[in-house]
Amino acid sequence: MKTKREKNPNILSLKESRTILRSNLAEMKKYEKAKRKKVTPEYFTTQLQDENNILEVENLHTYFYTDSGVSKAVNGITFSVPKDSIVGLVGESGCGKSVTSLSIMQLVQAPQGQVTNGEIRFATRDFVLDDKGKRIPIYVTDEEGNVVYADKLDKKGNPVKDKNGNIVRVPVQARAEDGIPLYEMKEVTYDIAKMPTEDMYRIRGKDISMIFQEPMTSLNPVFTVGYQIEEVVHLINPLATKKEAHERAIEMLSRVGIPMPETIVNYYPHQLSGGMRQRVMIAIALVGNPKLIIADEPTTALDVTIQSQILHLIKEVQQQCHASVVLITHDLGVVAETCDYVVVMYAGKIVEKGTVYEIFDNPLHPYTKGIQKAKPTFDTGVDADLYSIPGVVPNPINIPDECLFKDRCGERCACCEGTYPEEIKVTATHSVFCHKYKK
Q1: How many Å apart are CA 121 and CA 119, to the nearest integer?
Q2: Paired strand residues for 90
């Protein structure tokens, strides 16, 4: 009689399971300890390879330590996001698009999920600190360049007096249009993969923000949408009053095209339609005037008409704020309409990348050709069967170092054997990972 192992070789023995568990615990402990490490900013400060980029991801590996083994969700990808541009990440479900975005935001579910290798270089502005490690404020000056002083007020708005009964005068700190106090800033590039969690709080939500996939689960159902926007305002500007935060929330709702923002600000998420909730998510993402916006399939749960409105809004906001956008989607129609550059992912790796015109007019990788062929067009007959790529995506656990698409590829040949293909540059912006294009 056959044992369970003989019937199914994928079943792990108790000894193998314990070995995997011990190995996982050791690895997870190592990476979690690094996140809590006390380091100076110089430790995670770096430089961009191209000053025209806002984000550079190089050789990124994000693994999940499971009971069955190590799942290589993102397995060594490299791409960049130029300034004032929209970059689309496309591919089948489970190819690593969302995990890539969560890695950039440092929101991968820990301790099982960890960024194990690679660099995530992000260009931002950070505070200039004095000798005591405190921020240096910018003060209001008059026409002659002298600092303007005003009476110091307590919480009730009454002037503060010293021991001698004289009113205390303090310099007036300059503020931005949205009421945020201004401090001296400097241009700097950080490697997010090396940043401890506490330091990541300085840029997440303010300089990098994210529009999540499903607004109904991302918004808290027991708080009004206005309260949730105001909460972000207070996180970015702790000195903001309740009135200033409320006015900022109304302003953001109006900015994303929500009618009657003075009324909607007091609504709960369930009182809004799907399109309105998605606009609220965009408003939350824009509160800090971020330099980089990550939109994780923002139109998935919406009908076609609302999808068009949301995409138009994202593009309009990107142009107004001069921000860059990473748009994650599996809809090639969305990519063609919105994006400037496209990165095609498959099984945790990049198979092709280039401008939107290069990817659509001259697709090179068989997978890119397949997903384009699978999309219905006006020429598709009513009774015609839609094309589907045969086979299934390989298991990310213990994934081999070879072309992961070869078992599903209709153009497979003898040259496809061996290790994973290297990047082959076709033009300055267009590259493909395929053995067919070796010189």
Answers
A1: 6
A2: 344
The Cα 192–Cα 190 span in angstroms is 6
Q: How open is the CA angle 14-62-208, to the nearest 5 degrees?
A: 145
Which phi and psi (to 5°) does residue 168 adopt?
Answer: -75, 130
Q: How far apart are the C-alpha atoms of 47 and 50, rounded to whole Å?
A: 9
- Write down the H helix ranges in 256-331: 261-264, 274-286, 304-321
Please report, as a single letter, which amino acid is at residue 258. Answer: I
Give the CA-trace dihedral at 171, 175, 181, 183, to 10 degrees: -80
Report the alpha-carbon angle 75-336-367, nearest 5.
40
Q: At what angle do helices 242-255 and 225-236 cross, to 10 degrees?
A: 110
Give the model's confidence band at 12: pLDDT under 50 very low, under 70 low, under 90 confident, else very high: confident
By the 8 A CB rule, do 65 and 116 touch?
no
The H or E element containing residue 81 is strand 69-82
| CB 90 within 8 Å of CB 345 | yes
C-alpha distance from residue 282 to each of 21, 52, 225, 344, 439 (Å): 40, 25, 12, 25, 46
Quick: pLDDT tens for 76-120.
Answer: 999 999 999 999 999 888 889 999 999 999 999 988 999 999 999
CB atoms inside a 10 Å sphere around CB 424: 17
The two structure tokens encoding residue 1: 């009689």
**Three-class SS of residue 116?**
strand
Nearest Cα neighbor of 403 from 389, 421, 415 is 421
CA distance 248 to 338: 28
Q: What angle do CA 36, 58, 197 make, to 5 degrees?
A: 15
Cα distance between residue 286 and residue 208, in whole Å: 10
DSSP 140: P
292 sits in which H/E element: strand 292-296
Coil, helix or strand at residue 188: strand
- Is the model's pTM score more than 0.90? no
59 pLDDT exceeds 80?
yes
**Bond into 111 cis (ω within 30):** yes
The residue assigned the tokens 């400097």 is 186
Q: Please state, in angstroms and as integers, the Cα–Cα distance from residue 10 to each residue in 7, 19, 104, 112, 221, following that order.
A: 9, 16, 33, 22, 42
Please check the confidence at residue 6 and state whether its pLDDT lies above 60.
Answer: no
DSSP summary character for residue 73: E
Contacts of 89 (CB under 8 A, 6+ apart): 97, 100, 101, 326, 327, 328, 329, 343, 345
